[in-house]
Amino acid sequence: MRIQHVVKNLKLSTALLATMAIAGSCTAAPVSRVTTTYEGSSENFSNPERGFYKSMEPLDNNPAPPLQLSELQQVRREKLSTIRRYYLLSDFRDKPISQPYLDMISNDLKTVRKAGIKMIVRFTYNWLGGGPDAPSSLMLSHLDQLKPILRANSDVIAYMEAGFIGYWGEWHHSTHNFTDHTTGKITNDAKKVALKILSVLPKNRMMVVRTLGYKKQIFDNDLPLTSEEAFNGSNRARTGHHNDAFRSTKSDWGTYSGNLEVMEQEKAWLNLDTKYVVHGGEPAGPSDPPEWDDCPGALTDFARMHWSGMTVNANGNYSVPVYQGWREQGCMNEIQQRLGYRFRLIDSAIVDKVKPAGTFSMSFRITNDGWASPYNPRSLEVILRHRETGQQYYIPVAESVRRWMPGETKTIDIVCGIPANINSGEYQVLLNLPDPAPKLYSRPEYSIRFANQNVWEPSTGYNSLLRSVNISPNVAGETYSGTQVFKLR
Question: Residue 247: CA atoms inside 13 Å, Cβ hemisphere, count?
Answer without folding.
Answer: 23
